[in-house]
Amino acid sequence: MSAVSPARATALRVVRRVFEQGAYADRALRAEAEGLDPRERALAKRLVFGVVQRHGTLEWIVARHAKGRLQPEVRAALWLGLEQLLFLDGVADHAAISESVELAKPGPGHKVVNAILRRVQREGIELPADTDPQGAAIRHSHPEWLVRRWWDELGADETRALLAANNEPAELVLRINTLVPVDASQLPPGRREDDALVLDGPFDLAGSPLFAAGAITPQSRAAQRVARFLGPRPGERVLDLCAAPGGKTAHLAALMGGEGDLVAVEQHTGRAGALQRTCERLHARNVTVVVADASRFQTDRPFDRVLLDPPCSGLGTLRSHPDLRWRVTEAAITQLAALQDRMLQAARGALKPGGTLVYSTCTISREEERLVGDERFQTLPHRDGTDGFYVARETP
Ligand SMILES: C[S@@+](CC[C@H](N)C(=O)[O-])C[C@H]1O[C@@H](n2cnc3c(N)ncnc32)[C@H](O)[C@@H]1O
After folding, report:
1. Ligand 1 atom closest to Cα of 268?
2. Where is each SAM-dependent MTase RsmB/NOP-type domain found (predicted)?
């Protein structure tokens, strides 16, 4: 019988899919962890998120210890072992080492895994100091180009704090849907902030009857501020440009009490389907889903309020999207900024005179702050404990 726990075997498969086949970590994990019991699934998630987020640091350590080329399964087993030895609380060293060695079998590479992990256990690791961007990139496992940008935009201290926060688990937050009556005593324990419920501990969302009934939905505290910032009222005509999967659309509908017209535009057909399903589950009945390109959107019936939540680099959500930091490129940010400008033009064109426009991105990237009004807010993971958002409002 294998001595490897299902969580670790699952984590190895997911990590290999991410780095060898370019799979998305969260999707690959969902598929591979199906059927695991909740404890094993939770451990698999901690391992995958840890290894993928810490990839830069782990590769730096491997490069200093391994001589010669490593087989992919050996390298991945080493990452898992190092992550457990150095960064994961609550895992005994002997389990971290012996299970990683098993994962690297049957090839001869398991001996390398054993030797390196035992040496690291004995001697520890001295990571570079984070006194400059290069050291900070290795120590906190982010791409160096990104650390340099943040260093320039936010300063050294803020950047160091942000980098460290990006490797912490995200808080679990629900939005209580005011369109569905709910008995507060049925809600899981947590702290309330407006419609947000910040959970005290793990919660089986998919298995919850409240979720199925549309009484609750996961949404970060930062994301929940966006619809409120637009401030829609019942009976108004509201446009949501770039709407799928519909978290903010459904919140807008709730703030409108389900009264008025809410037009939700999404370009991708499959995602428009997901948007429609979100609206149905959350009882957002005043929504019309339109499949269209937001950058060319035109109307002869202008809107009281427009929300533009365009595609962005997502750098404010690195805690919940572990592989994103390794995918984003500087060239992509520049392309996104140009697209965001085109969408802003269309959004302004759809607004009534005196109407309100809100521009929202879930990123920390000066280049993507395309609307710079007097009225704006930014959230930062290390300062606010929630995703990093940039949100600005314009009332022409
Ligand atoms: C940041 S997400 C929107 C998140 C959404 N507002 C929410 O709260 O759930 C951006 C969305 O824009 C869509 N999108 C990308 N290009 C688009 C375009 N040219 N026109 C309309 N939608 C587009 C993407 O498919 C994605 O669903």
Report:
1. 25
2. 151-396
